[in-house]
Amino acid sequence: MKPGALGLGSRCALLAAGALLLALSVLNQQWTQSFDFAHHYSLVARIAEHWTLHPLSHVEYTDPGLGEMNIYPRLSHQLAAVLGRLLGSPLLGMHLTALLSLAVLWGALASSLATLPRRASLLAAAALLLGGAGLHYGLGLPLHGEELVGNYFYAQLVGHAAALALLVLDLAAERRAAAPVGRRLLLLAGMYLVASIHLLPAAEVLAYLAAQSLLEALRTGGWRARSLVIGLWPGLAGALLLRSHHSYWAMGKIAANDGVLNTPWFQHSWAFGLYVLVLALLGCALLSAWWRQQGAAWPALKLAGLYALAVAGIAGLQFLLFMTGHSNLYALKKHAFALHGAMLFAISLGLAWGLARAAAHPARGFLLQGLLPVLLMVALARMALPLQPGAPMAPLVALEHQLQLRHDLQLPPSDKPTYVLRLDGQTPITHYLFSLGIFHIPRDAMSIVLVEDRLPSDWSALSSVLTSEHSELDRDPACRRAPPANELVVLDASCVGAALGRPAHDLSFQRKGLANNCTLEHFSGREDHGSWSDGRSASLRCPLPARPGPALRSVDLEVAGFVTPAWPRQRVQITVIGGASQTLVLDLAHPVQTVRLALPAAAQDSLSLRFEFPDAQSPQALGQSPDARLLAMALRRMTFQ
Question: Helix count (H) and strand count (E) of the chain?
């Protein structure tokens, strides 16, 4: 070790300590309410429960509760399950694995700066911080870490962390004059391991290996046939190896599913293609600079250039698949995190080289080799996560423990599923998360009611319901399968359905109101203000309550409008199916109104209403919040007269 240099073990220990402190600082926060959060958790929980699943093979789904997770690459979920066993919570194990992976990812990039000359190291660090802030806060582009915000791309983040750690390990081996063949084998083995986490970062490792091998062969042997063979064999071998991996088939099948991902700049395919081209040109420029510099003091310049080319190359292939009709825009957008990360890293190294290329003094000492990478890692990783606190994890972990106890001790054997419903203070995704992960419900058409915060239409298809004590479902003490404990109660589902089947005169659509048997279409789940419409039209159907004496003649409908100073009016046309129509105007002066609707003379068993919303608007379009729903009216109460 050279005088003043910090040992590799010391640097790794500092980075590990920083990664752990970063993860612990945000361990009690999570920022997603995505389907993917529940789906990844269901696989982690299943592994932690059984420690073995059916072997991965080219088969269709076998566990109805896992869906496509039956064939999903499992290594990141197995790591989470091991951590979950140590921590006593699969949910916490998955969360901690994700946070540590985020730290590893940025720590790998930051540690490569210690290979630069002293001045260049500081310039690149400043460029990374300022560039990251500019891209993220100024332009709104997602950085690595936002895979955990909104859409939950857990395995993709863990895979990119492993891939970048592998590339930096290869850089360290190169600086220690390791044999090229040994380094190629290291990347091949690492690529195969990363593929067991996620295919996308594994493909980027393959592209990096192919470009690096060809570049180094040409640099030492020129354009001779022997040099070309030496340069091309690792890429060809890697392609064959990756093609044989199960994840190649599995991720290709899963990628056929379309989805929604909000990525600024990539709303149109041409913008994506242009961005990929710019990144590829930047990568070529960095490699050209490294070639002219002879690379001695600038190994990170080659790393940045090759990584930019690798990410651009794989994204470019995805773009070609999209243009030929073999992919979708959602699959393109999933490259955004790696593209922005590679662009930020390449620009930072390019600026450092342009401003300090004559510098020859290598970085030395604790500050540049030890502390600076740790500070960069923490700053960049924290920058990628929202500034506002996320939803607390501690109550979720405590709830996970309580639900697992109910599963183990209070549920009777049954072939029918058990749903988690209407827990106080919990979101619909939480109900879906634990119904999948702990109670193993099938992912079928009926389970969508959990996400939409609706009640099942056929209670006889369920065995039990787990809910909060005294919730809207806990109406009849005779439905309880066991005494309540820790404010949770297990109910017989058929009994709950019978209790709810008695139609009420006064119905609520607010979060804390009693449940009802109404069927709503194009309305969101219950919130404090009621059930919001989502779209230009919606409908509702409610059973009529039985009533001795005079027949029901009308229904009073209490509604609230989505009106703001920027959007001051909502027109609502209400049509009683089989009856009359009328138009309601909600404005700033009258945002909450009650309208009386006459029941049609032919109405016997149910009432059906249709709504039209010509002025529906989204809070996102008005710049008020990320909510992209087309809102017009919140349905609050309905009272039959």
Answer: 20, 16
